[in-house]
């Protein structure tokens, strides 16, 4: 069986009629007991499984997914990876993720198509340029690459922007993270799943958690639609459904679930070779390798678990996109969808032990979870393996809400998420 | 565009409304622990399915309670604020 992906194995399999490929991951029946359980087969859960095995040698691990892996927000996001954050705590966590993304394809032996095509955040007023300069300074002090762009710089990078004198959102400049970019979302999920499976992790799909096993005040495992499964440590990475699981475990989280929509156009020839974000129109655009324009915007304004999205926000996103790029006026939209994201008051993640000992949290990424997948996995794996915080995850513990030590990135990074 | 029922103005477009929070999240009286205060400020039930919420109709400026399903978005009714929702 061919296990390793390379040009040579592709060539050999081509000659052999593609008959020797091994399945990317195993689908075993669940055992009754593991050293650790991970709930949620999205990017964060799968990355946790991989780093548990790789960094900590913990391979007797079950990853439980109620649907199919990568079928939630990992398959519904707009694939942007960046680390241009204001607060040092955030720069550390997103910087870790970004640095792992850069070498992820080689690390996983799976092409996640990480493309450092640069990210441009537009600035639409003179006053906002002052804020942008402060933001760029803070990001540079955090050790993250970031530059302040003039109008001429913006014109060089996105010549198709609406620079006309009567533009509703004139450009005064921008902030530019040259090392930001995009990655192939499904490949991230599949790559982690394949690598974790090869290290011994059991990936179990169509296995929904119905309850927690709580004995002596500790979480001792889970009851699932495929029977009870025990472990002394359980981690959950279920994004918008975190509150639902928390209720089963007997505690509440500072999470509100909202739908976040995105859409793609029909594929066209290469027209935009970077990621462009406009905080004022609330829209961001990039172009996929297939040629589709990938368009995202703000959250729906209605708390929701319905993975569809409402019309008013979609309308606003399309209107904003046309304001920015009138050239796209004739484009046909191909697909629209929504994922349910876990929004917390300070727009920063929650990582740490839950109020139920033995159950560990990775949630609260809101609209920005995809970019953080390698870090979320590394840090939850560290917690599950050692029972203690990694230095990078400590500030993001749930206790910050009672202590008042919030990490308010909604204000800090200037982008609502 | 979905229509929401304002108890004062009748059915209006959803974009005229703003979400105010979960009904029944009452402000604790007197000296409370940091945990209790954080609970009031930040912790939420965030239910999947039937939910009762406080909304404001921005056009008339009135707050009211609305019963809604957070999965299929169906609205089952709305009412003026009672004692349960705002602790009056």
TrEMBL record, chain A:
Keyword Nucleotide-binding attributed: yes
Major location category of this protein: cytoplasm
Catalytic activity line of the entry: sarcosine + (6S)-5,6,7,8-tetrahydrofolate + O2 = (6R)-5,10-methylene-5,6,7,8-tetrahydrofolate + glycine + H2O2; sarcosine + O2 + H2O = formaldehyde + glycine + H2O2
Annotated localization: Cytoplasm
Entry GO CC: cytoplasm
Any one of the GO BP annotations: tetrahydrofolate metabolic process
Rhodanese domain sequence ranges: 37-80
Keywords: Cytoplasm, FAD, Flavoprotein, FMN, Nucleotide-binding, Oxidoreductase
Cofactor(s) the protein needs: FMN; FAD
Gene Ontology molecular function: any one: nucleotide binding
Enzyme Commission (EC) number: 1.5.3.24
This protein's record includes keyword Cell membrane: no
Family designation: Belongs to the SoxB family.
Protein name: Sarcosine oxidase subunit beta
TrEMBL record, chain B:
Annotated protein name in UniProt: Sarcosine oxidase subunit delta
A single GO molecular function term of this UniProt record: sarcosine oxidase activity
Organism name: Mesorhizobium atlanticum
A Pfam family this chain is assigned to: SoxD
GO BP of this protein: tetrahydrofolate metabolic process
């Amino acid at each position: 069986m061919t296990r390793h992906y390379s040009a040579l194995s592709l060539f050999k399999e081509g000659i052999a009629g593609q008959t020797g490929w091994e399945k990317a991951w195993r689908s075993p029946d669940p055992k009754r007991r593991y050293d650790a359980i991970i709930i949620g087969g999205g990017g964060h859960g799968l990355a946790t499984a991989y780093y548990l095995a790789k960094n900590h040698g913990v391979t007797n691990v079950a990853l439980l997914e109620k649907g199919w892996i990568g079928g939630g927000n990992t398959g519904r996001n707009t694939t942007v990876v960046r680390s241009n954050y204001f607060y040092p705590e955030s720069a550390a966590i997103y910087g870790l993720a970004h640095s792992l993304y850069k070498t992820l394809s080689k690390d996983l032996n799976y092409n996640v198509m990480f493309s450092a095509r640069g990210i441009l955040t537009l600035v639409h007023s003179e006053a906002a340029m002052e804020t942008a300069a402060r933001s760029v300074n803070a990001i540079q002090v955090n050790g993250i690459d970031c530059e302040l762009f003039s109008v001429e710089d913006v014109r060089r990078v996105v010549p198709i922007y609406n620079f006309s004198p009567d533009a509703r959102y004139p450009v005064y400049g921008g902030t530019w993270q040259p090392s930001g970019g995009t990655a192939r979302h499904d490949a991230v999920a599949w790559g982690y799943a394949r690598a974790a499976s090869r290290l011994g992790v059991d990936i179990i799909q169509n296995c929904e958690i119905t309850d927690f096993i709580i004995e002596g005040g500790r979480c001792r495992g889970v009851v699932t639609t495929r029977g009870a499964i025990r472990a002394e440590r359980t981690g959950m990475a279920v994004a918008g459904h975190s509150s639902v699981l928390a209720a089963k475990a007997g505690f509440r989280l500072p999470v509100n679930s909202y739908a976040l929509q995105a859409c793609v156009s029909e594929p066209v020839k290469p027209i935009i070779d970077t990621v462009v974000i406009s905080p004022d129109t609330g829209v961001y655009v990039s172009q996929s390798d297939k040629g589709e324009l990938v368009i995202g915007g703000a959250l729906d304004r209605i708390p929701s678990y319905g993975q569809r999205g409402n019309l008013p926000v979609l309308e606003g996103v399309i209107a904003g996109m046309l304001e920015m790029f009138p050239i796209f006026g004739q484009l046909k939209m191909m697909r629209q969808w929504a994922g349910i994201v876990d929004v917390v008051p300070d727009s920063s993640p929650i990582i740490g032990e839950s109020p139920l000992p033995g159950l560990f949290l990775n949630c609260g990424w809101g609209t920005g979870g995809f970019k953080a997948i390698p870090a979320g996995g590394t840090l939850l794996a560290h917690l599950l393996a050692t029972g203690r915080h990694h230095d990078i995850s400590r500030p993001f513990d749930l206790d910050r809400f009672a202590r008042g030590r919030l990490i308010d990135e909604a204000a800090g990074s200037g982008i609502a998420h | 565009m979905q229509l929401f029922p304002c108890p004062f103005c009748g059915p209006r477009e959803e974009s005229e409304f703003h979400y105010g929070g979960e009904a029944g999240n009452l402000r604790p009286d007197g000296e409370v622990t940091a945990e209790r205060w954080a609970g009031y400020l930040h912790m939420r039930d965030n239910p999947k399915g039937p939910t009762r919420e406080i909304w404001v109709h921005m056009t008339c400026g009135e707050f009211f309670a609305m019963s809604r399903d957070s999965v299929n978005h169906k609205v089952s009714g709305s009412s003026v604020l009672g004692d349960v929702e705002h602790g009056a």
